[in-house]
Amino acid sequence: MSAAPASTRPVVEVQRRTLRVLVLAQVLSGAGLAAGITVGALLVTDLLGSARFAGLPAALFTGGSALAALAVGRLSQRHGRRAGLAAGYVAGAVGAFVVVAAAAAQNVWVLLGAFALYGAGTATNLQARYAGADLAAPHRRARALSTVLVATTLGAVAGPNLVGVMGDVATGWGLPALTGPFILGGAAYAAAGIVLGVALRPDPLLLARRLDEEAVENATVPAAVEVPETDDAVPGPTAEDAPAETAAEDPGAVRRAVLVAGTVMVLTQAVMVAIMTMTPVHMADHGHAVSTAGFVIAVHVGMMYLPSPLSGWLTDRFGPLRVAVAAAMTLLASGLVAGLVPSSSVVGLAVGLGLLGLGWSLGLVSGTAMLTSSLPLATRARTQGAVDLSLALAGAAGGLGSGFVVASSSFAVLSLGGGLLALAVLPVVALTARSRTGPDRAAAADRPV
To answer: Taking the model in full, what pTM does it have?
Structure first.
């Protein structure tokens, strides 16, 4: 039996409230996302006494985020975005605090397992972008999801720059200095989970499904709908709940769109994680302080998220395939700069890592817009989780392989190779555009004339 609705509000008002809640949670979680990235490789190098395994933390972060992406997607599919995202952030917070305890006890095996659990926060931070698009109009979908991404900037930039401060806090508590950022990360993830668990009502995915069903029944989308203050009136999705329009979808076209979107995001993620992971180690090996490496990573993370509104506008305006090409070219430029500048040049490395972040933003936003526009609501969250699983596995491979590449050759080889790998996006885009059934055509149909 459904609860009586508490109020009647236009969908646009609910979407604005949803974005406000997501923005607050992303600001908080951004600190957790970036703080551990800065010192994870350094912590393992310190404990193991070798940089050969410095890529392990990033590999475990992203490997853990792969499993978490699948779990969060399935939980969101069944119970809504609020349940999935809140649970993911809580898991990330637990992982961060276990990292602190394991490092204090110098237990490497527990530490490595905790890195994987900490990755749940990374997966959840990325999955939140989908929640921003659930209720968005098709021609504003990329801008809506980019609003959620850009909100991460404040915490993500602040986190690496608090490495020194949090190191002093940890030392004052009798803990290793490098555990300080993980203390910050655990608190940030926990706060984000609480915000979403309390305030993300009504649930955007469950409400979007309900509206879709009503639109099918009434042959029109209502201008104002009854929106309950709780999710009790919005049942969880089942296979039988699939809207009628799903039956009209071309399964082959959907599969092609998912493949193209996934390829763009997977390549973008692998290149970004590989170069980013080894930058602090490369800088430490050439005499730079941890705080200086933190500054470079802060520039990188800022450029991952700060240009998101631009990435969203470009995607809505010109289509995701063109923006995917721009992402590949930007990543190539990043690899050239990071690989060729002198190791002593902090400015040069910051520019290279900034371009790396921008290329990632363009690739993620364009790929996400392709993916979301192609999927029916009945299976959207589950498929998004599966794609993010591939995304995280690609990042894990990039993070793990980066340490071995640098140990056997150099950081320059890693950077240049990553830039060239990004160009693999181009033939995929070319084949899709030639087929005349690609996502850009569907996206263009969504955009108003």
So the answer is: 0.76
